[in-house]
Structure formats: C-alpha cells, structure tokens
Amino acid sequence: MKTVPTKEPVESQRLQLIERLRAALQALEDGDEAVFSTRFDALVRLREESLFAHVARLTRALHDEVLAMRLDTRLSQLAGDEMPDARHRLDYVIRMTETAAHRTLDLVEQARSVPTRMTQAAAQLSDAAALLRTTPSEAAAIAQRLDEVRASLQGDALQLRTTLSELAQAQEYQDITGQLIKRVITLVCNVESALLELLRAAGGGLQAASARPISALSEPPGPVLPGSANAAAAADQHDADELLASLGF
Amino acid sequence: MDKNMRILVVDDFSTMRRIVRNLLTDLGYSNITEADDGKTAWPLLQAGSFDFVVTDWNMPGMTGFELLQTIRADARIGKTPVLMVTAEAQRDQIIAAAQAGVNGYIIKPFTAQTLKEKIDKIFQRLAETA
C-alpha cells in the first residue's frame, strides 16, 4: 500500500494555499479583523495538517519497509518464542547428558564385581588342580569345585553381556542431543541473519568489535575448541608438562 | 605413598567427581571426600586434615584457582599438595597456577595413566624435599 503523494494533490494543495492567502490578505486590506483571524487560523491549520501528513507518510513508509522484510514478525518470534525454546532445549541436553553419564558410571561400577569374581574363579581352579595332583581320589569334591567355578563364570558372562549392551544403550542420548543442538544452531543462524538485516535496514555499517582481552584469572576461557582462535595459544598435556618443567616443576 | 591418605576432590560436575573418584579408587586410594566448588571445599579443608586436594579450575562460587590461593595463604594447611585437573589450557593460566603454588596440572580430557603419573610425581617430590 503506497502512500507517496502524487503530483496532483501537491498541485491542488498549492492552489488551495494561494487562494486562502489571497482571501486572508483581502480581509486584512478590508480591515475586517475577525474574518482575517479566521482565515489566518485556517491557513496555519492547513500547514500543520500537511506537516502531520508528511510525518505520517514517513512512518508508514518505514513500517512498510520493515513489513516487506518481515523483520518485525521474525524478530518478535525469535525473541518471544524461539529463544526460550532454545534455552529449554539446551537445558534438556544438559540433563540428558548428565543422566547418561551417571547411568554409564553406575553400570561400570556394577561391572567391577565381575573381574573380582573371575579372579576368585581362577583361584578356585588352581585349588582344584592342586587337589587333582595330590589326592585324585577326591574326584567328587574336585568335580563339585569345578561345577561351582562353571556356575560362577556363566553368571559373570551373563552379567557382562547385559552390562555391555546397557552401556551401549546409554549412549543413545547422543542422537537426541545432537538433533536438539542442531536446531539451536539453526536458531542462532536465524538470529544472526535477522540482526544483520536490521543493521542494514537501519543504515548502519558493521563495525568489528574490539578484541576482548582474556582476563586469565577472573574469567577463565574454558575448554579449548579445536580449530578456534584460542586453540593456537592452548597447551596440551605435553606442553603443560614442559612449561611446568621450565618453571622448575 | 600412603594409600589411606585423605583426598578432597573438588569439581562442580558430579560426573567428573565420580570419574576422578573411580580412578583414585583404581589406584588404591579409598579415603576420598567430594566438594562441588571452592566455597564448599574450604570449610571441609579447615575442619578435616586432608593430605591431598584434586581440584577443577572453573567453578561457580569459588574457583579452583582461588581455592589454591586461599590454601597457600593459610598458615595451618598452606602446604597441602594441590593437583589441578582442568579444561583450562592457556599457557598464561598454567603459569599463573604454577606461580600460585600448584603441585601438578592436568588438562582435561585426561587418562588414568596421566593421573597416576602426576600423583606419583607430586609425592615423590614431596618425599625428596621433606
């Protein structure tokens, strides 16, 4: 909906203005103060109306511009719905990964009893072997021990198999967290492009932000992201060991 | 090395505390207490006679770096050996930790072998200087 004035209304406004000025001048020349005052007020009103109309036209044009880019709806949607949604997704990712890590650690702790029992089983086997060498007549007792070892090992095998498959299952969070994180990345890209468009619409050029110095002690930079700017300055364990050695550690 | 020594493990992530605790248990240490940041670790350290502190750096409340400084500034427990286990890997940070008096520095992610080596080295050095 374009509201830019065409030539004709402007021309008619001009003629109207001339006519009213003449009428006001006529009243002044005639010494009719009351009529002059009325006509002069009408002139002022006309002028004000045209100023308001101009401001209104500009406002409308700007609004149309923003609408044309669908920026306002996009921005309000981003800020109102998608940002909180992303926050919830990331919170959920944290909860899922934490739960999975604890589940994995639980399973590992449960499986710790297996090698302990296997060591015991080996000791029982060597007891049985010793008995076989010294008193082969105790065949029944030996057979019973071997049977116990077999039962123990069978139980361990079953437990280990179950634990291993549960460990594998505990990694399934990765599929879901991966998808959630990808959606958040998409959102971040949308926010970025919307902000860039907004900057362009506002006529401002992009200025590079000044580099923020790392304040090593109050705000540590956190884990190193491979390939990032701070990765180059980061140390691995070997570098750290050498650095500490050079400091007399 | 005394396998019964009292160890305080400080990390804000409960999973990491469990992992460190498990690794220490595998190495034969059984006397382990946990704290979730420097602020909760400090009263524990003052109350109990801990022989060794394993701490993360980046934690809310009080960081591991601040905890290290606080320990070193204390007359009574100032000599307690501190091992930093952290994802902070900038050279400036390692130097800062060294200057603050850290006894060892492990960068996450780390292996059981690294943990063992650093602990052995720390107590070997302490035995030499004792």
Task: Return residue spans of chain A where pLDDT drops below 50 for at least 5 consecutive residues.
Answer: 1-5
* Strand content bin of chain B: 15-25%
Strand-pairing-aware structural class of chain B: alpha/beta
Radius of gyration of chain A: 42 Å
The radius of gyration over CA of chain B amounts to 13 Å
Name the quaternary structure: heterodimer
End-to-end Cα distance of chain B: 13 Å
Largest sheet of chain B: 5 strands, parallel
The residue-averaged pLDDT of chain A reads: 82
Q: Helices and strands in order, then pairings?
A:
The complex is a heterodimer of chains A (249) and B (130).
Chain A: H1 7-29, H2 33-68, H3 71-111, H4 113-134, H5 139-169, H6 173-201, H7 237-246
Helix pairs in contact in A: 1-2, 3-5, 3-6, 4-5
Chain B: E1 7-10, H1 14-26, E2 32-35, H2 38-47, E3 52-55, H3 64-72, E4 82-86, H4 91-100, E5 104-107, H5 112-129
Parallel strand pairs in B: 1-2, 1-3, 3-4, 4-5
